[in-house]
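Run: sequence + NAP -> complex structure.
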Amino acid sequence: MKAVYIEEFGGPEVLKIGDVPVPQVKPEQVLIKVVAAGVNPVDWKIREGYLSAVFKHNFPVILGWDMAGTIETVGTDVKGFIPGDKVYCYSRMDAIQYGTYAEYGLANANAVARIPGNMDFYTAATIPLTSLTARQGLVDVAQLSAGEKLFVANGSGGVGGFAIQIAKSIGAEVCATASSKNHAYLNAIGVDAVIDYHTDNIPEKIRQFASDGVDVVLDCTGAEDVEGLFKYVKKQTGRVVTINGLEQSIPVLESCAKKYDVKACMFHVEADGKALAQITELIEQDKIRPLPVEKYSLDDAAIALQKSQAGHVCGKLVLSIQ
Ligand SMILES: NC(=O)c1ccc[n+]([C@@H]2O[C@H](COP(=O)([O-])OP(=O)(O)OC[C@H]3O[C@@H](n4cnc5c(N)ncnc54)[C@H](OP(=O)(O)O)[C@@H]3O)[C@@H](O)[C@H]2O)c1
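>> structure
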Protein backbone atom coordinates (compact mmCIF):
# COMPACT_ATOMS: atom_id res chain seq x y z
CA MET A 1 0.00 0.00 0.00
CA LYS A 2 1.07 3.61 -0.52
CA ALA A 3 2.12 5.40 2.65
CA VAL A 4 4.11 8.34 4.00
CA TYR A 5 6.72 7.00 6.39
CA ILE A 6 10.11 7.58 8.02
CA GLU A 7 13.02 5.20 8.61
CA GLU A 8 14.88 7.61 10.90
CA PHE A 9 14.08 10.77 12.85
CA GLY A 10 14.75 14.15 11.27
CA GLY A 11 13.42 17.11 9.30
CA PRO A 12 11.28 17.10 6.14
CA GLU A 13 14.11 15.34 4.24
CA VAL A 14 13.53 12.02 6.08
CA LEU A 15 9.93 11.75 4.85
CA LYS A 16 9.41 8.97 2.28
CA ILE A 17 6.43 8.10 0.08
CA GLY A 18 6.28 4.54 -1.18
CA ASP A 19 4.96 1.00 -0.84
CA VAL A 20 4.84 -0.69 2.56
CA PRO A 21 3.03 -3.88 3.67
CA VAL A 22 -0.62 -3.60 4.75
CA PRO A 23 -0.68 -4.11 8.55
CA GLN A 24 -1.97 -7.39 10.00
CA VAL A 25 -5.19 -7.13 12.02
CA LYS A 26 -5.11 -8.45 15.60
CA PRO A 27 -8.31 -9.87 17.15
CA GLU A 28 -9.27 -6.62 18.88
CA GLN A 29 -8.48 -4.39 15.91
CA VAL A 30 -10.01 -3.13 12.67
CA LEU A 31 -8.33 -2.29 9.37
CA ILE A 32 -9.67 0.93 7.85
CA LYS A 33 -9.47 1.87 4.17
CA VAL A 34 -8.39 5.46 4.72
CA VAL A 35 -10.04 8.21 2.68
CA ALA A 36 -8.60 11.12 4.68
CA ALA A 37 -5.96 11.55 7.37
CA GLY A 38 -5.99 14.49 9.77
CA VAL A 39 -2.71 16.36 10.29
CA ASN A 40 -1.70 17.27 13.85
CA PRO A 41 1.41 18.94 15.30
CA VAL A 42 2.30 15.61 16.92
CA ASP A 43 2.94 14.17 13.43
CA TRP A 44 5.98 16.37 12.76
CA LYS A 45 7.02 16.00 16.39
CA ILE A 46 7.16 12.22 15.82
CA ARG A 47 9.11 12.76 12.59
CA GLU A 48 11.61 14.87 14.53
CA GLY A 49 11.90 12.21 17.27
CA TYR A 50 10.53 14.40 20.08
CA LEU A 51 8.45 11.49 21.40
CA SER A 52 11.18 8.85 21.17
CA ALA A 53 11.60 8.79 24.97
CA VAL A 54 7.84 8.47 25.56
CA PHE A 55 6.82 5.79 23.01
CA LYS A 56 8.55 2.81 21.42
CA HIS A 57 8.95 3.43 17.67
CA ASN A 58 9.21 0.50 15.23
CA PHE A 59 10.68 1.67 11.90
CA PRO A 60 9.50 2.15 9.26
CA VAL A 61 7.05 4.42 11.05
CA ILE A 62 3.99 5.53 9.07
CA LEU A 63 3.03 9.01 10.30
CA GLY A 64 -0.45 10.15 11.35
CA TRP A 65 -2.87 9.45 14.20
CA ASP A 66 -6.24 10.68 12.81
CA MET A 67 -8.22 9.01 10.03
CA ALA A 68 -11.64 8.62 8.42
CA GLY A 69 -12.64 5.91 5.98
CA THR A 70 -14.48 2.60 5.69
CA ILE A 71 -13.88 -0.57 7.65
CA GLU A 72 -12.07 -3.10 5.46
CA THR A 73 -11.54 -5.98 7.93
CA VAL A 74 -12.61 -6.63 11.51
CA GLY A 75 -10.57 -8.67 14.00
CA THR A 76 -12.09 -11.90 15.30
CA ASP A 77 -13.01 -10.39 18.70
CA VAL A 78 -14.57 -7.19 17.36
CA LYS A 79 -18.27 -6.60 17.82
CA GLY A 80 -20.32 -3.63 16.64
CA PHE A 81 -18.51 -2.91 13.35
CA ILE A 82 -18.71 -4.59 9.96
CA PRO A 83 -16.83 -4.05 6.70
CA GLY A 84 -18.16 -0.99 4.87
CA ASP A 85 -19.01 1.02 8.01
CA LYS A 86 -18.01 4.68 7.67
CA VAL A 87 -15.82 5.45 10.67
CA TYR A 88 -13.25 7.81 12.12
CA CYS A 89 -10.79 7.62 14.96
CA TYR A 90 -7.70 8.85 16.77
CA SER A 91 -5.54 5.76 16.59
CA ARG A 92 -2.53 5.59 18.84
CA MET A 93 -1.08 2.22 19.68
CA ASP A 94 1.38 1.35 22.48
CA ALA A 95 4.18 1.32 19.89
CA ILE A 96 4.38 3.89 17.07
CA GLN A 97 4.44 2.08 13.72
CA TYR A 98 1.19 1.96 11.74
CA GLY A 99 -0.05 5.50 11.21
CA THR A 100 -2.85 6.96 9.13
CA TYR A 101 -0.95 8.65 6.24
CA ALA A 102 -1.56 5.44 4.26
CA GLU A 103 -4.10 3.63 2.13
CA TYR A 104 -4.95 1.38 5.09
CA GLY A 105 -4.79 2.24 8.79
CA LEU A 106 -4.99 0.04 11.86
CA ALA A 107 -7.00 0.91 14.97
CA ASN A 108 -8.10 -0.76 18.16
CA ALA A 109 -11.84 -1.18 17.73
CA ASN A 110 -12.45 0.62 21.04
CA ALA A 111 -10.92 3.80 19.53
CA VAL A 112 -13.35 3.90 16.60
CA ALA A 113 -16.71 5.63 16.14
CA ARG A 114 -19.11 6.09 13.23
CA ILE A 115 -18.69 9.42 11.44
CA PRO A 116 -21.45 11.98 11.95
CA GLY A 117 -24.39 11.53 9.56
CA ASN A 118 -23.87 13.27 6.20
CA MET A 119 -20.35 14.38 7.07
CA ASP A 120 -17.67 13.90 4.41
CA PHE A 121 -14.54 11.90 5.26
CA TYR A 122 -12.22 14.92 4.87
CA THR A 123 -14.01 16.92 7.52
CA ALA A 124 -14.40 13.85 9.75
CA ALA A 125 -10.67 13.08 9.70
CA THR A 126 -9.87 16.46 11.28
CA ILE A 127 -12.01 15.86 14.36
CA PRO A 128 -10.88 12.94 16.56
CA LEU A 129 -7.54 13.84 18.20
CA THR A 130 -8.21 17.52 18.82
CA SER A 131 -11.83 17.18 19.91
CA LEU A 132 -10.95 14.32 22.28
CA THR A 133 -8.12 16.41 23.74
CA ALA A 134 -10.50 19.31 24.33
CA ARG A 135 -13.17 17.06 25.82
CA GLN A 136 -10.82 15.12 28.08
CA GLY A 137 -9.08 18.33 29.22
CA LEU A 138 -12.28 20.19 30.04
CA VAL A 139 -14.66 17.41 31.14
CA ASP A 140 -12.51 14.60 32.58
CA VAL A 141 -9.56 16.58 33.94
CA ALA A 142 -10.86 20.11 34.75
CA GLN A 143 -14.48 19.05 35.38
CA LEU A 144 -15.69 22.33 33.90
CA SER A 145 -19.32 23.02 34.77
CA ALA A 146 -22.13 25.33 33.64
CA GLY A 147 -21.67 28.96 34.70
CA GLU A 148 -17.90 28.65 35.16
CA LYS A 149 -15.40 30.82 33.31
CA LEU A 150 -12.71 29.33 31.07
CA PHE A 151 -9.63 30.87 29.50
CA VAL A 152 -8.28 29.03 26.43
CA ALA A 153 -4.71 29.99 25.53
CA ASN A 154 -4.70 29.53 21.71
CA GLY A 155 -8.31 29.46 20.54
CA SER A 156 -7.53 29.35 16.81
CA GLY A 157 -5.73 26.00 16.68
CA GLY A 158 -7.32 22.56 16.43
CA VAL A 159 -7.71 21.87 20.15
CA GLY A 160 -8.76 25.44 21.00
CA GLY A 161 -11.52 25.49 18.36
CA PHE A 162 -13.13 22.42 19.87
CA ALA A 163 -12.45 23.53 23.46
CA ILE A 164 -14.38 26.77 22.93
CA GLN A 165 -17.37 24.93 21.48
CA ILE A 166 -17.39 22.09 24.03
CA ALA A 167 -17.18 24.62 26.87
CA LYS A 168 -20.10 26.57 25.40
CA SER A 169 -22.11 23.33 25.05
CA ILE A 170 -21.50 22.74 28.79
CA GLY A 171 -22.78 26.26 29.59
CA ALA A 172 -19.45 27.86 30.50
CA GLU A 173 -18.28 31.36 29.53
CA VAL A 174 -15.12 31.40 27.43
CA CYS A 175 -12.38 33.85 26.62
CA ALA A 176 -9.50 32.88 24.36
CA THR A 177 -6.38 34.29 22.75
CA ALA A 178 -5.89 34.61 18.99
CA SER A 179 -4.31 36.97 16.47
CA SER A 180 -6.67 39.70 15.22
CA LYS A 181 -6.90 37.95 11.81
CA ASN A 182 -8.71 35.07 13.59
CA HIS A 183 -11.06 37.07 15.85
CA ALA A 184 -14.05 36.85 13.50
CA TYR A 185 -13.60 33.05 13.37
CA LEU A 186 -13.51 32.78 17.17
CA ASN A 187 -16.63 34.92 17.45
CA ALA A 188 -18.34 32.66 14.90
CA ILE A 189 -17.67 29.56 17.03
CA GLY A 190 -19.12 31.23 20.11
CA VAL A 191 -16.29 32.70 22.18
CA ASP A 192 -17.51 35.31 24.68
CA ALA A 193 -14.33 37.41 24.75
CA VAL A 194 -11.31 37.33 22.51
CA ILE A 195 -7.83 38.58 23.38
CA ASP A 196 -5.17 39.50 20.83
CA TYR A 197 -2.07 37.72 22.10
CA HIS A 198 0.21 40.07 20.14
CA THR A 199 -1.14 43.45 21.22
CA ASP A 200 -3.45 43.12 24.23
CA ASN A 201 -2.40 43.10 27.88
CA ILE A 202 -3.54 39.52 28.55
CA PRO A 203 -3.71 39.65 32.40
CA GLU A 204 -5.71 42.90 32.23
CA LYS A 205 -8.12 41.46 29.63
CA ILE A 206 -8.63 38.34 31.73
CA ARG A 207 -9.35 40.47 34.83
CA GLN A 208 -12.01 42.31 32.79
CA PHE A 209 -13.52 38.93 31.87
CA ALA A 210 -13.28 37.44 35.39
CA SER A 211 -12.30 39.85 38.16
CA ASP A 212 -11.29 37.06 40.63
CA GLY A 213 -9.67 34.96 37.92
CA VAL A 214 -11.16 32.26 35.72
CA ASP A 215 -12.23 28.86 37.04
CA VAL A 216 -10.24 26.94 34.43
CA VAL A 217 -7.24 27.68 32.22
CA LEU A 218 -6.69 25.36 29.25
CA ASP A 219 -3.25 25.95 27.76
CA CYS A 220 -3.09 24.88 24.10
CA THR A 221 -0.03 26.90 23.16
CA GLY A 222 2.67 24.27 23.60
CA ALA A 223 4.52 27.03 25.45
CA GLU A 224 6.98 26.77 28.28
CA ASP A 225 5.74 29.71 30.44
CA VAL A 226 3.77 27.48 32.76
CA GLU A 227 3.87 29.78 35.81
CA GLY A 228 2.29 32.58 33.75
CA LEU A 229 -0.91 30.51 33.46
CA PHE A 230 -1.46 30.48 37.23
CA LYS A 231 -1.86 34.26 37.36
CA TYR A 232 -5.18 34.00 35.49
CA VAL A 233 -6.94 31.44 37.67
CA LYS A 234 -9.15 31.75 40.76
CA LYS A 235 -7.41 30.86 44.05
CA GLN A 236 -8.36 27.58 45.80
CA THR A 237 -11.04 26.39 43.36
CA GLY A 238 -9.23 27.09 40.08
CA ARG A 239 -7.77 24.45 37.74
CA VAL A 240 -4.87 24.85 35.32
CA VAL A 241 -4.62 22.26 32.55
CA THR A 242 -1.84 22.24 29.99
CA ILE A 243 -1.41 20.00 26.97
CA ASN A 244 2.07 21.28 26.15
CA GLY A 245 3.45 17.76 26.62
CA LEU A 246 6.77 18.98 28.03
CA GLU A 247 7.94 16.65 30.81
CA GLN A 248 10.02 19.50 32.30
CA SER A 249 6.75 21.39 32.95
CA ILE A 250 5.52 18.81 35.48
CA PRO A 251 7.69 19.94 38.48
CA VAL A 252 6.83 23.58 37.67
CA LEU A 253 3.12 22.71 37.57
CA GLU A 254 3.37 20.92 40.90
CA SER A 255 5.21 23.73 42.67
CA CYS A 256 2.92 26.41 41.19
CA ALA A 257 -0.16 24.42 42.23
CA LYS A 258 1.05 24.66 45.85
CA LYS A 259 2.17 28.29 45.58
CA TYR A 260 -1.11 29.51 44.04
CA ASP A 261 -3.30 26.99 45.94
CA VAL A 262 -5.01 25.56 42.84
CA LYS A 263 -5.18 22.22 41.02
CA ALA A 264 -2.88 21.76 38.03
CA CYS A 265 -2.33 19.00 35.53
CA MET A 266 -0.62 18.16 32.25
CA PHE A 267 -2.24 15.34 30.34
CA HIS A 268 -1.93 13.35 27.11
CA VAL A 269 -5.05 12.58 25.08
CA GLU A 270 -6.25 8.96 25.15
CA ALA A 271 -7.87 7.14 22.24
CA ASP A 272 -11.53 6.59 23.17
CA GLY A 273 -14.24 5.50 20.73
CA LYS A 274 -17.06 5.97 23.27
CA ALA A 275 -16.06 9.58 23.96
CA LEU A 276 -15.71 10.15 20.22
CA ALA A 277 -19.25 8.82 19.75
CA GLN A 278 -20.45 11.38 22.33
CA ILE A 279 -18.68 14.12 20.35
CA THR A 280 -20.42 12.77 17.23
CA GLU A 281 -23.77 13.28 18.98
CA LEU A 282 -22.89 16.90 19.82
CA ILE A 283 -21.98 17.45 16.15
CA GLU A 284 -25.23 15.86 14.98
CA GLN A 285 -27.14 18.13 17.40
CA ASP A 286 -25.24 21.10 15.89
CA LYS A 287 -23.74 21.94 19.30
CA ILE A 288 -20.22 21.57 17.87
CA ARG A 289 -19.21 22.44 14.34
CA PRO A 290 -16.17 21.12 12.51
CA LEU A 291 -13.30 23.56 12.15
CA PRO A 292 -12.19 25.16 8.84
CA VAL A 293 -10.33 22.51 6.80
CA GLU A 294 -7.45 22.90 4.34
CA LYS A 295 -6.91 19.86 2.09
CA TYR A 296 -3.62 18.45 0.72
CA SER A 297 -2.86 15.34 -1.33
CA LEU A 298 -0.89 12.49 0.28
CA ASP A 299 2.00 13.40 -2.05
CA ASP A 300 2.05 16.86 -0.45
CA ALA A 301 2.27 15.54 3.12
CA ALA A 302 5.67 17.25 3.55
CA ILE A 303 4.13 20.63 2.70
CA ALA A 304 1.24 20.06 5.11
CA LEU A 305 3.65 19.09 7.88
CA GLN A 306 5.76 22.20 7.24
CA LYS A 307 2.64 24.31 7.47
CA SER A 308 1.69 22.66 10.76
CA GLN A 309 5.22 23.10 12.11
CA ALA A 310 5.19 26.82 11.25
CA GLY A 311 2.47 27.05 13.94
CA HIS A 312 -0.14 29.29 12.29
CA VAL A 313 -2.84 26.89 11.11
CA CYS A 314 -6.31 28.24 11.87
CA GLY A 315 -8.56 25.17 12.09
CA LYS A 316 -7.21 21.92 10.64
CA LEU A 317 -5.20 20.37 7.81
CA VAL A 318 -6.18 17.11 6.13
CA LEU A 319 -4.55 14.72 3.63
CA SER A 320 -6.61 13.16 0.88
CA ILE A 321 -5.58 9.51 0.53
CA GLN A 322 -7.89 7.91 -2.02
N1 LIG B 1 -1.08 16.64 25.36
C1 LIG B 1 -1.87 16.25 24.37
O1 LIG B 1 -2.49 15.18 24.45
C2 LIG B 1 -2.00 17.10 23.13
C3 LIG B 1 -3.07 16.86 22.25
C4 LIG B 1 -3.22 17.70 21.14
C5 LIG B 1 -2.30 18.72 20.92
N2 LIG B 1 -1.26 18.88 21.77
C6 LIG B 1 -0.27 19.97 21.58
O2 LIG B 1 -0.97 21.18 21.86
C7 LIG B 1 -0.52 22.22 21.00
C8 LIG B 1 -1.74 22.80 20.25
O3 LIG B 1 -2.25 21.82 19.35
P1 LIG B 1 -3.20 22.28 18.15
O4 LIG B 1 -3.47 21.08 17.32
O5 LIG B 1 -4.33 23.05 18.67
O6 LIG B 1 -2.18 23.26 17.39
P2 LIG B 1 -2.36 24.06 16.05
O7 LIG B 1 -3.68 23.81 15.45
O8 LIG B 1 -1.16 23.81 15.20
O9 LIG B 1 -2.28 25.59 16.58
C9 LIG B 1 -2.06 26.59 15.63
C10 LIG B 1 -2.62 27.91 16.14
O10 LIG B 1 -1.87 28.35 17.27
C11 LIG B 1 -1.96 29.78 17.30
N3 LIG B 1 -0.90 30.27 18.18
C12 LIG B 1 0.44 30.10 18.03
N4 LIG B 1 1.08 30.65 19.08
C13 LIG B 1 0.14 31.18 19.90
C14 LIG B 1 0.19 31.88 21.14
N5 LIG B 1 1.34 32.16 21.75
N6 LIG B 1 -0.98 32.25 21.70
C15 LIG B 1 -2.16 31.98 21.11
N7 LIG B 1 -2.27 31.32 19.92
C16 LIG B 1 -1.13 30.92 19.34
C17 LIG B 1 -1.78 30.13 15.84
O11 LIG B 1 -2.34 31.40 15.59
P3 LIG B 1 -1.47 32.59 14.90
O12 LIG B 1 -1.39 32.29 13.44
O13 LIG B 1 -2.26 33.77 15.22
O14 LIG B 1 -0.12 32.57 15.56
C18 LIG B 1 -2.55 29.02 15.10
O15 LIG B 1 -3.86 29.40 14.74
C19 LIG B 1 0.54 21.60 20.09
O16 LIG B 1 1.79 21.83 20.70
C20 LIG B 1 0.21 20.12 20.14
O17 LIG B 1 1.31 19.28 19.86
C21 LIG B 1 -1.09 18.10 22.88
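>> summary
The chain has a mean pLDDT of 97. The two ends are 11 Å apart (CA to CA).
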